[in-house]
Specification:
The protein is mainly alpha-helical and 108 residues long. Helices cover 77% and strands 6% of the residues. It contains four helices and two strands, in the order αββααα. It is elongated. The termini are far apart. The relative contact order is 0.07.
């Protein structure tokens, strides 16, 4: 995965011969990538946030991140609602199958 992140221009280790050397900055970026993926951000969104930090490292980065975080919270809340509806529909289906199975057993 780390080489994949390098290919996507998210990590930039230095090289000493054949060995990649990951500086503390690279490790911090990797932690941000992993955390961003865990909360549902795409690699493009993660790169955008990291690039903002590299470019500005000031209030603008925080405001953009805040907007993205709030947007992701809204997306996740909607997904949660959708999942709750799906679970409810499946539970209703299970209940119906139990009723039909009981009726089939009684009719047999």
């Amino acid at each position: 995965a780390i080489r994949f992140y390098e290919d996507k221009d998210l990590l930039h280790p230095t090289r000493q011969g054949q060995t990649r050397v990951y500086r503390p900055r690279d490790r911090a970026r990797l932690a941000l990538i992993v955390r961003g993926k865990a909360i549902g951000f795409s690699l493009g969104e993660i790169k955008e946030l990291i690039d903002l930090y590299d470019t500005y490292g000031d209030e603008r980065q925080y405001l953009v991140a805040l907007d993205k975080f709030r947007e992701q919270i809204a997306n996740l809340e909607q997904q949660k609602k959708d999942i709750d509806v799906q679970i409810e529909l499946l539970q209703e289906g299970c209940d119906r199958m139990v009723e039909l199975a009981k009726k089939a057993k009684a009719d047999a």
